Amino acid sequence: MAISKTLVDELEKRRAIALEGGGADKAAARHAKGRLTARERLMALYSPGTFQEFGLHALHNTRHFGMENKPIPADGVIVGTGFVDGRPVAGFSQDFTVAGGSLGEIHARKICHTLDHAVKAGIPVVGFQDSGGARIQEGVGALSAYGQVFYRNVQLSGVVPQIAVIAGPCAGGAAYSPALMDFVIMTRENAQMFICGPEVIRAVTGQSTTVDEIGSAQVHASVSGNIHFIAESDDHAVAIAHRLLSFLPSNNMSDPPHTIEPDLSIDDDPGFDDLLPADSKTPFDVREVILRLSDGGDFMEVMADFAANIVIGFGRIGGVVVGYVANQPLVKAGTLDIDASDKAARFVRFCNIFNIPLVTLVDVPGFLPGVMEERRGIIRHGAKMLFAYASATVPKITVILRKAYGGAYLAMCSQDMGADRVLAWPSAEIAVMGAEGAVSILYNKELAQAEDRQARARELADDYRAEFASPYLSAGMLFVSDIIQPRQTRSAVALTLRGLLSKRETRPPKKHGNIPL
Ligand code: HXC
């Protein structure tokens, strides 16, 4: 017996109403501003024909302020699963055209259902945030609903990758869900993220500010460090999410999508030989080393505009997905400061969770000296680097390009901090501290009496470098596994990586370590 036409018509009628969202006018207004609707965002994310929605027929639970009988199609959020590059991904997309995308109990239940599904299926989540925050008419119920989302974000952390796309307002406590996820992409226009808006700040502190000053993508990418990528449009945000997913495994029990060829041979690349300037004090762009190391020069930099004195990101070497951490001599001479330590340490921990080997490139004169750095806690923040590297059990390869001084040498994954291989270029300088600093302490009295203090200090510093900072000294003590010509770097790192792919390292069981936060 065929299903009755009446039942089919009823289903299609209900579907059509829910699919309309906030209506054609509101959708047109978004398009006029160059923005996609919530549903279009998910369609852009997923391969055509692969999206399976659940909760389309959700009813809202808003019982006050005359809302009881008002429709809120799908309760303002579209959720489901689909495929990206042949792999399943869970997704949700808040619909600002429906009650401002505000989060009520059922809306949150749909997001929670999506997150629960992701953890059961072992698949990543991408969430588009575009919401006025907690649905005010639902009162404390909406607050509790946010709590349920946060709780799940934390349960998923370390199990499946979580990517947030901030594509509209993201105000108040709502900003904490993206903050609990692994990567945050934010559109340059039309998106704002803050805890207390300008009015609240003015009322409480008397300070006058604007949304742009506290909550724009530019501010979060370069000043606060709250986001990882700026997108120029909704489509661009989706493209960034696609690229990011191409480097990530589906869950913490899977390998990342390596593309290893059976052929193990990689030719030397003479192009590496000229990357370093003749003078060891002249800065160079470490990203040139990363680009040469990476297959096809393909490098996805993460947090490019924040703490630019350290570079982090993903690439492949000989088909193996890696996470790079590299000092950037172009900015603050490549020193490690508070922001750089926070940025790199979190990235190291992300790679460790998701089985992504780490390649660390070192040219670091030390931690950044400064009154504010000390007072703001460079000890606590720098310790995150030590903690992150020492707890990481993924393959760890360190290449010392130039300077590797003091605590920063250790913080950049020296052998003692757990590197599986430390390679050094002949230009490496490895020592307890920089030559100039060491000489000023060791020869304090002699320099005070020298006729030409500067010339004598230079002479002594050159002697120190030759005698104490030579990489052969470290190689002689087995702190460095091998000294290689720059041109041999790619083949050496690729072979080492492949040899480490089955690495197993077990640690005593514990709830978790107590990383200095
Ligand atoms: C219910 C909301 C809403 C909300 C917006 N709307 N935010 N409804 N609860 N939180 C509704 C509006 O009433 C309006 O409905 C529609 O969405 C569109 O909103 P507009 O204001 O017309 O849009 P726009 O001018 O673009 O302004 C967007 C906005 C503004 C900046 C986001 O709506 C706003 O400031 N909203 C409140 C933001 C906020 O303070 N949220 C914090 C809530 S407390 P109609 O029917 O007219 O179309 C919170 C705590 C969470 O989130 C804590 C978690 C730990």
From TrEMBL:
The keyword ATP-binding does not apply. Residues 4-260 form the CoA carboxyltransferase N-terminal domain. It holds the Pfam family Carboxyl_trans. GO terms for molecular function: acetyl-CoA carboxylase activity; propionyl-CoA carboxylase activity; transferase activity. GO terms for cellular component: acetyl-CoA carboxylase complex. It comes from the Bacteria. It is an enzyme of class 6 (ligase). This is Carboxyl transferase. One of its GO terms (biological process) is fatty acid biosynthetic process. Its EC number is 6.4.1.3. Residues 261-507 form the CoA carboxyltransferase C-terminal domain. The keyword Transferase applies. Keywords: Ligase, Transferase. InterPro entries: AccD/PCCB, AcCoA_carboxyl_beta, Acetyl_CoA_COase_Trfase_b_su, ClpP/crotonase-like_dom_sf, COA_CT_C, COA_CT_N.
